[in-house]
Amino acid sequence: MNNAEIFNTELYDDVAVTEVIRPSAIIPEDAARRILVELALQDIQRGGVWASAPTRWSRYHSVWGPLGEPEGSDLLGTIEVAYGTPTKYDITIYRVTVTRQGAALGWTVESLCNDALRFGDLELSTCPRANLAPPPKPFRF
Fold it and tell me: Residue 63: pLDDT above 90?
């Protein structure tokens, strides 16, 4: 098993809540830029509590140790995102997971999202949403 598989197994064995955000929350360009800057400034490698990657933002309970090791910092939850959708500079939030440790500390899907969205002066409840188109008609011969 590679490191990614081990990480995912450990992560999802410890899940309290996973919610698919429907319709997906859309972070507009100006707010997306501010959020990405703040996530970078508050990265776990810089003494912060966030670890951001192109598909996932992870929130930890406390800063990591000096060697880049969690050292007792529990993962509270993750926000799964897609960059460049629906337009080139927007970001879409489509799934949020709160771990058992996060839930035990009072974190919810909404509070986890709001912790990241606050950097762009947004909240999940007021965030713009994707337009849901009706499904296509079935193909018939």
Answer: no
